[in-house]
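User: Structure please.
Assistant: Input sequence and predicted structure:
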Amino acid sequence: NTYLPLKKDPTSSFKKKITKALKDLEEEDLKIQPTGEQPPAFYGLPKIHKKDVPLRPIVSSVGSVTYELSKFLAEIIGPLVGKSEHHIKNSGDFVNKVKDIRVEKDEIITSYDVCSLFTSIPPKGAVAVVKEFLDSDNTLGERTKLSAEQVCKLLELCLGCTYFTYNGQFYQQLHG
């Protein structure tokens, strides 16, 4: 099962963890605090291109305890997006990357549709990849005073805050 029903709202617990982590970095002169206390909210967007129009699950964290920290981390990590040779920006980028590939007679090209992509990504693995990129990023110091290690500790906090509310019930995402 992907989601565990919770007995109570974990917002204050997560807020304390984030506040403590930020306080531990106080000497870095960070100007961020968890200001919001709105629990992340679950909703669905219809996949109109699929049979029976299933919903794509979305969890909005706007106004949540991780919102400000997530925005801060996105500014630090954002410039790393697209640096991997495996990154594909959109379908046009994909076409450009494969247009000169020659497929031999004994080869075929296949594609796969990933189901539940974000709940399939292990957070520790994601943080390890980000750390690798940050460690080799010569411009990190231009975006933050934090070390790669400190950024990753904050990222782990955000990725571990995977609860949400739906129809008045709180749930914890168990994977991804």
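The first helix runs from residue 11 to 24.
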